[in-house]
Amino acid sequence: MTQSQAAAITVPKPQDGEALLRLLEERRSVGMTALAEPGPDSSELRRLLTIAARVPDHGGLEPWRFVVIAGEARKRASEAACRLYADENTAMDPEKRAKFSAIVGRSLTYAPAIVLVVSRSDTTARIPAWEQELSAGAVCMNLLHAAQALGYGATWLTGWVAYSPGMHALFGLSEAEKIAGIVHIGTAREALGERKRPDIDAITTYW
Question: Residue 129 contacts by C-beta under 8 Å, 6 or more apart in sequence?
Fold first, then answer.
């Protein structure tokens, strides 16, 4: 490639780069219990997922997929989670087990839409599994940014649901798949304040 050819290759500048930067600077998570209706409709959700999947993906492996829980499916998932938590934690004190079973069940009912980002690394590929898992994490982050850009609140969680064998089976995951994130999306019940952020100077070195 000649110098003149290299100079001709430019990255398109966003029409409003400052607006995008402000969005990124102001993004924050909204706790799942603070989310309510309305949530994204079907066309908005498809757009969110399309944006979420626009991430670095070495080798074009698409090492992730989505499972969406919305509408009445939330109730079914909640009931199943209550039952499975009790089944998988039989050694717990019965009263404590009942309490946490209910908490786990409710966790799938607050947000109008829940997206499971499923990591499905191809261990036979030349791309290291670690890089494929990082790509799944980037999908989760893109989804949070896209949700906020559309005016919704969202949060990226994991917890018991993400690691339970019973829940994996319920959602149709294979043994080789993992839940990289459970992203809850809805409308924030109230405006949220800022939280403490990292000191960039303290965590940055120049080599």
Answer: 121, 122, 123
